[in-house]
Amino acid sequence: MADEILYLTELLGLKVYDLKGRLIGTLRDAALVPLIDPIRVDRFLVGAGPGWLSIRYDQIKSIDTDGIHLKDELLTPYHSDEYMLRMVRDLLDQQVIDAQGRKVVRVNDVTFLKEIENGTQVLHILEIDIGIRSIVRRVLSGIVPAGMIRSLQRRIPPHSIRWEFCNIVEADPQRRVRLNISNKLLEDMHPADLADIVEHLGHEDRTAIINAVDTETAAEMLSEVEPEIQTSIIESLKADKAADILEEMEPSEAADVLNELEQEQSEQILEEMEPEEKEEVEELLEFGEHTAGGLMDTGFLALPEQATVAEALAALRALETIEDLHYLFLVDGENHLRATVPLAKLFFAPGDSALKEFASERLLSVRDDFKQDRVAEYFDKYNLLALPVVNDEDELLGVITVDDVVALLRQG
């Protein structure tokens, strides 16, 4: 197996010979064409005099650390091709995302597996190398014979990432298509893991990730990153793209993001939002930034105080999701808060029972102008999952969840 492995550092500078054994030039780079084959090296770029030649994989007779021998001399000059993923230009020393380890890594070397395909020796990209072993190869390459370097590196544990778990960070969306870069690895990550990765990238690469993934994934990830990074990312997006992402976020989170923007940009994004989502966010923007009103969400389920368990279950089934729903709220005809009903009590209750029979003994709520640090104290003191927010007349305005409080404490 060892003889079938070749490293990019071993390939660079290899001499290339024609059918008669005459020197043509030296290897300067190698490239995949992912739309043709996602792992096979398709082109070898050879420096010959003042220019470069492009050699197809099927023109290679043999390739090893002693050199590259051709079986076809119909060579063409190299012209830059946006469909090529070049190993030296696009990969070596660049940051990529390790989707399995959920982190950003720097590429020190690339490992290829030499195989036979239709009678031709081909190279398939196997791994990217990120550890000390690959650094040793690069430092000693061209100074120490390749065989000796291989002997030395056996003492050093390998540290590499399988190619299928690598995601290339490419800012140009059109080039992502040309290079056939999939977003699936990123979209399958937990938002918190993706947020950690984004926080370790530069500004352009962060924007590239946001533009690459779907709006739901972008919104979930944006909810997890630090506020200053949220602002930086949204500021870099076009208004319609930013609006699409904010629509997927909780209204209170979207309002927090817009509060950090310049007024003109905030208004432009609001104009691009759908009317319903826009109205919810605008309502929240009216509240003080550090108040309960600024922290609450307007997505809650309120029912008449005379409602039954059956009516509540029917209302729950009509919702798209109940993932963040912990309580139902009972209100009178004028939307005054009358009771809080834990959702867990309903599932084994008789359908004809009145909801108020299952209401919490103590009705806890806070005013919309309540300070956020006091809200956090309430959650801690009473071990709450959610807390309703009312105005001076006890009209139900929204709800604060434990997730909102955790996010608040993280920011603090």
The number of E-state strands comes to 21
The N- and C-terminal alpha carbons lie at a distance of 54 Å
CATH architecture of the largest domain: Roll
Oligomer: single chain
How would a textbook summarize the main sheet? Answer: 8 strands, mixed
- The top-level CATH class of the largest domain is Mainly Beta
Number of domains: 3
**Average pLDDT over all residues:** 89
The portion of residues forming beta strands comes to: 25-35%
Overall outline: elongated
CATH homology superfamily name of the largest domain: PRC-barrel domain
Quickly give the structural class.
Answer: alpha+beta
Helical content class: 25-40%
Poorly predicted sequence stretches spanning 5 or more consecutive residues? none
**Gyration radius from CA atoms, angstroms:** 30 Å
Q: Please give the count of helices.
A: 18
Give me the CATH fold name of the largest domain: SH3 type barrels
Task: Write structural notes for this entry.
It is a single chain. This protein folds into 3 domains: 2-164, PRC-barrel domain (SH3 type barrels), CATH 2.30.30.240; 183-286, MgtE N-terminal fold; 302-411, CBS-domain (Roll), CATH 3.10.580. The protein is built from 18 helices and 21 strands. The strands form 5 sheets. Strands 2, 3, 4, 5, 6, 7, 8 and 9 form an 8-stranded mixed β-sheet that branches. A 4-stranded antiparallel β-sheet has the order 1-12-13-14. Helix 11 crosses helix 13 (263-272). With 412 residues, it is an alpha+beta fold. The model has no long low-confidence stretch (mean pLDDT 89).
